[in-house]
Specification:
The structure holds 2 protein chains of 2 kinds. Helices cover 68% and strands 3% of the residues of chain A. By secondary structure, chain A is mostly helical. In chain A, a hairpin with a 6-residue loop joins strand 3 and strand 4. Chain B has one domain. Chain B is 71% helix and 1% strand. Chain B is globular. The N and C termini of chain B lie far apart (44 Å). Classes of the chains: A mainly alpha, B mainly alpha.
C-alpha cells in the first residue's frame, strides 16, 4: 500500500513537472445531463500549477516518511491519501465552481474517513460539523453566484457577481469567506482544527497542515481575484475586514501556541497563526506575491516540523514538552533539522522564512496599513517564544524520564524528507528571488503587479531590497571565523559526563530535582492582562452558547412538531387549507 | 577593500564598545558613591578570560551558543552604516536594510539561548525565559516607531533615513516616536528597569550562568560590539546620524550616558511588570505617535 502510494505521489509530481509549461484544457457541456448551459472543465494555469506542486511535493514527502514505521500502521491512511490528493488536484485545476464543489466535498469526506480511526468522537463530530457547514456555505454561495450570470465558470463569475444586488453580493461574500475561513482555521472558525490536528495520525497532521489548509487560501485567492475582483473594485472595507481577521488570528493563535504543552497542538496553533499572516495581506493589491511566497514557505516548513515531531513521537511515545527533553545528543540530526525549521518559522535571516516575512511586511507598508503591520510584527516576535519552547522542550534541558537517555537517532525514512526540505529552505534563503519568476507568472495571470526581479539573490520590494546571498554568506563567514578563533585559543575544558554537574547555588541536584525547567516558559504571562484574557477565552464558550440556543429552539419546535401522528396530520390539513387559500387569491 | 572596511568597523566597534563598557562601570559607580574600577578593567578582564580554562562543557551545542551570539553581533554591526554621506564605513549596509537589521538583532540572543538551554542549568534557562517573555513587549514600541519612520521616509534604508534628517532630527520632529523607542532601547541595552534577564548582582541566574573561560570572554566581547552597534542604529534612526567620527562618538556617548543614567536611577521591574508597563505606556505613546506622524 505504502509503495503504491509513494509511486503514485512520485508519478504525479513527475507529471506535473514535465508538463509545467504546457497548457492543457478540457471542457464538458453538461447539456447531455439536462443541465443546459452548464459547462465544466479543467485547465492548467500558473496559479493551479503552483498549488498542485505544493500538493504533489507534500504527498511525496509524507509518503517517504511513512516507510519509517515497521508495521503497516497507516494502512487505511495510504488507501485514502491518493484519493484525497486527486480531489485536491481537482480543486486546483478546475475552472468552474461545480467541480470545485465536488473536489471540496470529496476532500472533506475522505478526510473524515482518514480521521475517523484516531479521533475521539467529540473531535470527529466537531470536524464533520464544521466541514459540512463550510461545504453548505460554499454550495449556497455557488447557487447565489449562478443566479447572476447562469454559469459556473470562473471567467464569467465576475460578470455574474456584478449583476447581483448589493445585499446578495454581501451575503455571497460572507458565505464564501465563512466556507474558506473554516478550512484555514481563522480565529473563531478554528474550533474543529486544533483537536483534529492533535489527534490525527502524525503523518496525516503533516498533510493537513501543509496542504489541506492551503486549499482555503486557494479558494480565497480564486474568489477574491476572479469573482469579486477585489483590486479593481474599491471595496476598502472588505480589504480591511479581511486584514483585521487575519491579524487577529495571528496574534491570538500565537499566544495560544505559547501556552500549549502538547507538541501537535502547539504546531496547530502556529499553523493558524502563519495562515493568519497570509489572510492579512490577501486583500491588498501588493500582497499577492507575499501570499504565494508565504504559502510556499509555510508548506515546506510545516512539512519539516510535523515530520520531525512525528519522528520524535514515534521514537519516544511521548507527545508533551513536559515529558520530553535532553534529546539533542541522542538525536543530533533531528535537532539540527528542527533548528532549521524553527529558524524559518520564526522568519529569521538568513533562511527562507525571512524572505516571505519581508514580503508580508513591505506589502503592508506599501498599502499604508501601518497599525496592522505593527500587530503582525508583534505576533511574529511573540512567536519566538513558542519556537524556542518547542526546541527546548524536546531537545534541550534535561531528559524527564530514564527511557529518554537511551534512545537512538530516528529512522532514516523520517530524516530523508526533512533533509530535502531543509536543503530547499537554505537554498531559498540564499537566493530569495529564485522563485520570484515563477510567482510572477501567477501574478500576471491574476492581473496584479509582479515582484520586481533582477537577480536571484536580491529580493526587491517597493521600499528597498535585500541581498539574501550576502546576508547568508556574511553570517556563515563570520561564524566560521569566530569558530576558528575560539578553537585556536588554547584552553582546557572537562566534558561533563554527569548532567547534574551544573552551577546550582553550591548544591548538587539529583535526578528528583525538576531541572527541565523551561518547558513551561511563558506561563508567567498569565499575569499580563490581555494575554490572560486570550488564554481564558475560548471559542468553545461561543459554540456552547450556540448549542444551548439551538436546544431551546428545538424544544419550542417540538411543541409544534410533537411527533404525534395525529397532530402532524392536523398541521398537514392546516397547511393544505393555507395553500388552497393562497391559490384562490 | 570592503574587507578592510569591515575589519576597521569591527576594530572600532570593539574598542569603543569596551571603552563605553569601562565608562559604564565608572559612571554607575559614581551614581552609587563609589569610584569604580579603571576604565580599561573590563577589557583586561575579557583578555584574561580568554586565557583561562573553562571548567565545564556540555557538548558542541553549548559551545556554539556564544559563537552564534558573537556572529549575530558582528553581522548586525556590518549591516548598520556608520555615516550617512560617506562611501567608507558603510559595511554591508547596501545589501540589507532596516528589516534585516531588526531581525539580526535577535538572531544572536536566540542562538545563545540554545547554548544556554543545552547546559541544562535551570537558573540559566530562567534568564532565557524572562528574556523571551519580555522580548515581544520590548520590541513592539520600537517596531511601531521604526515602521512610522520607514513609512515617512518611504525607504527601509538606514542611511536614507539618517540623511533625511538635515533640518530637524527625528527625535525632535517626532517625539512621540522617539520616547517609546527610547524605552525599548533601554531594555535592549539591558538596563534597569528592564534588566531582569541578566539580573546582575542579586540573583544567581541569567543566560551566562554556566559559561566560563573563553566563552565568557566571547560573551563579554560581543556585548561590547553589540552595544555599540545598537547605539549607532539608534543614532541613525533618531539623532540625525553622523557625518564624521567626532559626531558619531559624541552622539552615541550622549545616548549611552542617558541610558546608563536612567538605568542607575530606577529599580528593576519583574518580568510581567515590565511587559505590562511596556505594553501600556510606550506602546500607547508609539501608536499615537504613529497615527500623528503618518496621518494624511
Amino acid at each position: 500500500m505504502r509503495i503504491i502510494n509513494t509511486l503514485l505521489a512520485f508519478l504525479s509530481l513527475a507529471l506535473l513537472l514535465s508538463f509545467w509549461q504546457d497548457n492543457f484544457s478540457f471542457y464538458v457541456d453538461l447539456a447531455l445531463l439536462g443541465l443546459h448551459g452548464v459547462v465544466v472543465g479543467v485547465k492548467t494555469s500558473a496559479l493551479s500549477n503552483v498549488f498542485a506542486l505544493l500538493i504533489g511535493f507534500s504527498w511525496l514527502m509524507v509518503s517517504i516518511a511513512s516507510f519509517a514505521s515497521k508495521k503497516n500502521t497507516h494502512s487505511t491512511l495510504f488507501l485514502w491519501l491518493p484519493i484525497l490528493s486527486l480531489a485536491l488536484f481537482l480543486i486546483v485545476y478546475t475552472v468552474d465552481y461545480l467541480l470545485f464543489f465536488v473536489g471540496w466535498e470529496v476532500m472533506s469526506i475522505v478526510s473524515y474517513f482518514i480521521l475517523a480511526p484516531t479521533l475521539t468522537p467529540k473531535a470527529l463530530l466537531k470536524y464533520i460539523l464544521f466541514a459540512m457547514a463550510s461545504a453548505l456555505a460554499l454550495l449556497m454561495g455557488i447557487v447565489i453566484l449562478y443566479s447572476g450570470a447562469e454559469t459556473l465558470l470562473y471567467i464569467d463569475a465576475n460578470h455574474g457577481f456584478t449583476l447581483l444586488s448589493q445585499q446578495m453580493k454581501m451575503i455571497l461574500v460572507l458565505l464564501m469567506l465563512f466556507a474558506f475561513f473554516v478550512k484555514i482555521g481563522a480565529i473563531g472558525f478554528h474550533y474543529w482544527l486544533v483537536d483534529s490536528y492533535a489527534q490525527a495520525d502524525d503523518l496525516f497532521t503533516t498533510y493537513l497542515s501543509a496542504v489541506l489548509s492551503k486549499m482555503g487560501i486557494y479558494g480565497l485567492i480564486i474568489f477574491l481575484t476572479q469573482v469579486v475582483d477585489i483590486y479593481s473594485l474599491d471595496w476598502k472595507i472588505l480589504a480591511y475586514t479581511i486584514a483585521i481577521i487575519g491579524v487577529t488570528t495571528s496574534v491570538i493563535a500565537t499566544f495560544k501556541a505559547i501556552k500549549e504543552d502538547e507538541l501537535k497542538r502547539l504546531l496547530a496553533y502556529s499553523s493558524i497563526a502563519q495562515l493568519g499572516y497570509i489572510v492579512t495581506i490577501l486583500a491588498i493589491a501588493g500582497g499577492m506575491g507575499g501570499v504565494l511566497y508565504h504559502a510556499l514557505i509555510h508548506t515546506l516548513v510545516k512539512l519539516l516540523l510535523f515530520i520531525n515531531i512525528a519522528s520524535i513521537i514515534a521514537l519516544t511515545n511521548r507527545s508533551k514538552l513536559s515529558q520530553l527533553g535532553g534529546l539533542i545528543y541522542r538525536t543530533p540530526h533531528s535537532f539540527v533539522l528542527l533548528l532549521i525549521g524553527i529558524i524559518v518559522l520564526a522568519g529569521m535571516p538568513p533562511l527562507a522564512g525571512f524572505a516571505s516575512k519581508y514580503l508580508v511586511y513591505t506589502s503592508l507598508l506599501d498599502a499604508k496599513m501601518l497599525l496592522i503591520l505593527s500587530a503582525v510584527m508583534f505576533a511574529s516576535v511573540s512567536g519566538f517564544l513558542y519556537v524556542y519552547k518547542l526546541i527546548y522542550g524536546i531537545y534541550l534541558g534535561h531528559p524527564t524520564h530514564k527511557s529518554l537517555e537511551s534512545v537512538d537517532e530516528v529512522s532514516k525514512w523520517y530524516l530523508i524528507p526533512q533533509y530535502i526540505i531543509a536543503l530547499l529552505l537554505v537554498i531559498i534563503g540564499a537566493f530569495p528571488a529564485l522563485i520570484v519568476p515563477t510567482l510572477n507568472t501567477v501574478l500576471v495571470q491574476l492581473h496584479v503587479a509582479p515582484i520586481p526581479f533582477e537577480t536571484s539573490t536580491i529580493l526587491e520590494s517597493p521600499l528597498g531590497a535585500y541581498n539574501g546571498f550576502v546576508v547568508m554568506s556574511a553570517f556563515a563567514v563570520i561564524f566560521v571565523l569566530v569558530l576558528f578563533f575560539v578553537w585556536r585559543v588554547k584552553s582546557k575544558a572537562k566534558n561533563v559526563k554527569n548532567r547534574f554537574d551544573i552551577a546550582y547555588c553550591g548544591e548538587e541536584p539529583t535526578s528528583a530535582t525538576p531541572l527541565h525547567y523551561g518547558y513551561g516558559m511563558g506561563q508567567e504571562l498569565q499575569r499580563v492582562g490581555f494575554i490572560a484574557i486570550i488564554w481564558k477565552q475560548s471559542s468553545a464558550s461561543f459554540y456552547n452558547a450556540l448549542t444551548l440556543m439551538l436546544f431551546s429552539l428545538s424544544t419550542r419546535l417540538r411543541k409544534v412538531y410533537t411527533g404525534n401522528l395525529a397532530s402532524n396530520f392536523n398541521w398537514l390539513i392546516i397547511f393544505a387549507i393555507f395553500l388552497l387559500c393562497w391559490g384562490l387569491e | 577593500m570592503i574587507l578592510f572596511d569591515l575589519f576597521l568597523i569591527l576594530l572600532i566597534a570593539y574598542s569603543v564598545g569596551f571603552l563605553y563598557y569601562g565608562l559604564y562601570r565608572n559612571i554607575t559607580a559614581r551614581f552609587q558613591r563609589r569610584f569604580g574600577p579603571p576604565i580599561t578593567q573590563s577589557f583586561y578582564d575579557s583578555i584574561k578570560f580568554f586565557s583561562k580554562e573553562d571548567s565545564t562543557s556540555h557538548g558542541w551545542m553549548f559551545y556554539l551558543g556564544p559563537i552564534i551570539m558573537m556572529t549575530g553581533a558582528i553581522t548586525t554591526l556590518f549591516f548598520i552604516p556608520f555615516f550617512y554621506d560617506r562611501a567608507d564605513f558603510r559595511g554591508l549596509s547596501d545589501y540589507g536594510n532596516l528589516f534585516v537589521v531588526l531581525y539580526l538583532l535577535v538572531v544572536g540572543p536566540l542562538g545563545n539561548a540554545l547554548g544556554v538551554g543545552v547546559s541544562g542549568n535551570p537558573f540559566a534557562v530562567m534568564g532565557v525565559t524572562r528574556g523571551l517573555s519580555r522580548l515581544f513587549a520590548m520590541e513592539l514600541p520600537f517596531y511601531i516607531a521604526v515602521i512610522a519612520l520607514i513609512s515617512i521616509n518611504q525607504s527601509a534604508d538606514i542611511a536614507t533615513i539618517a540623511s533625511n534628517q538635515h533640518e530637524t532630527i527625528n527625535a525632535i520632529a517626532y517625539p512621540l516616536l522617539f520616547i517609546p523607542a527610547l524605552f525599548a532601547f533601554i531594555g535592549m541595552m539591558g538596563q534597569s528597569p528592564f534588566d531582569v534577564v541578566g539580573a546582575p548582582v542579586e540573583v544567581y541566574s541569567g543566560p551566562a550562568a554556566e559559561f566560563s573561560g573563553k566563552f565568557l570572554a566571547l560573551l563579554m566581547s560581543q556585548g561590547a560590539i553589540f552595544s555599540f552597534a545598537k547605539l549607532v542604529l539608534m543614532v541613525n534612526l533618531f539623532l540625525g546620524g553622523a557625518s564624521g567620527f567626532m559626531e558619531l562618538l559624541l552622539k552615541t556617548f550622549l545616548l549611552f550616558l542617558f541610558v546608563i543614567a536612567f538605568g542607575s536611577l530606577y529599580g528593576r521591574f519583574k518580568t510581567p511588570q515590565s511587559i505590562d508597563f511596556l505594553l501600556k505606556v510606550p506602546t500607547v505613546i508609539a501608536i499615537v505617535g504613529l497615527i500623528l506622524a503618518t496621518w494624511s
